[in-house]
DNA sequence: AGGCACAGCTTTGCATGCATTGCAAGGTTG
DNA sequence: CAACCTTGCAATGCATGCAAAGCTGTGCCT
């Protein structure tokens, strides 16, 4: 059995990956119309594969599509951010509950080791993007222990949507000299007791704590960088 | 002010809606390759809008795309069904928790009334599709009380994916002469106490009870209707 | 007999083009 | 002067066509 040409990525998938990264890093202004011709030129492809990729983003909620008018970057209202954080709570709490039942001590050791190893970098890191990657890695690793591909992919999509917000939040958190490492270690500790419910509640408290701050961070960040016309939707 | 042409649905959205319905009702055999030319002819459109719609389904996980080989109906392994049910638990439990806090008594009255009104139809209905619609309506109404659009859309996608399985399950449930109405009413009753945690646990128990039976139902249904080549993925 | 290679046919991948529609600027009228 | 209509441009919507890649069936070789 040959590996086929899995390596020869097709244009649509390549464009999709680029667009998703652009969307996650807010290369498009919220509410802004996306010009297909210009974007296809910028990406070195034609409009057909670009539109196919954009339709994937529509299904994922990164982009809105209005018949006859085209594609628009989806605005992130404060309400929607709250909804996304609640969805995140739903998925991560269930994932950690499952993970508590499934995970072997060695799995938890591995995650805790990763936390310890990144702790120094966490303290000294000045790049908020990297900060966010470290934080996100913990949550994704933990969710992976649930061994549920659906939960993992749902969570990955949510993280892509709130990444901008979380970056702003973590930047402010670090500015206060604190880190999330010890909070993460506490969650692992609860998981070791084998009480899935308690672990789930610990995760809930952790995320909702950040949601509070994120709501404030986004207000500042939005004012700073963009002027999102409060989408009437 | 004209209504614009919001009513004039564009071809891509129309095709997408049809495809999603076809996918939910398993008009494509699991693992089967989707022939673009034939399908576009059948739908009365050309391949371009069809491919755009298919790319939305790719993002939602209904369809797999392999570069150079085309689109394939995604197979539903037993493992994946379990994962989807767990994802459903995650979302519905959080939604019911939020709903318990938000919902006014009148909201719960409305849902309970709908349950009572459909109870007779539930008992006498012989169409499993209709049976499933009634059951699904309750869960979606309840989730809507969370007032979280993200949770609602995630749940709708999951329901579309497991609809076939649930239809088989509910058919068998009804054959035993029982219904889910009283289970649903019990969940509402717990919500009235205002204890979100308890309501969440009641919902969890309800779904996981059905998940047990669904796993068995799918084994039978798969054997009956399709011969899904256990996708090596 | 089994497997490999090649040829042809089918299907996908994507660029292009044209019709249609939205959008905006300028002109006209009350 | 403001509101409405008109007209031109630009961008979308989608069908089509061609090149490239996959699939299949046949015949040859081992």
Automatic annotation (TrEMBL), chains A, B:
InterPro entries associated with the record: GntR_C, TF_FadR/GntR_C, Tscrpt_reg_HTH_GntR, WH-like_DNA-bd_sf, WH_DNA-bd_sf
SMART domains: FCD, HTH_GNTR
Domain HTH gntR-type: 9-76
Keywords: DNA-binding, Transcription, Transcription regulation
Gene Ontology MF term list: DNA binding; DNA-binding transcription factor activity
Listed name of the protein: Putative HTH-type transcriptional regulator YdfH
Encoding gene per record: ydfH_10
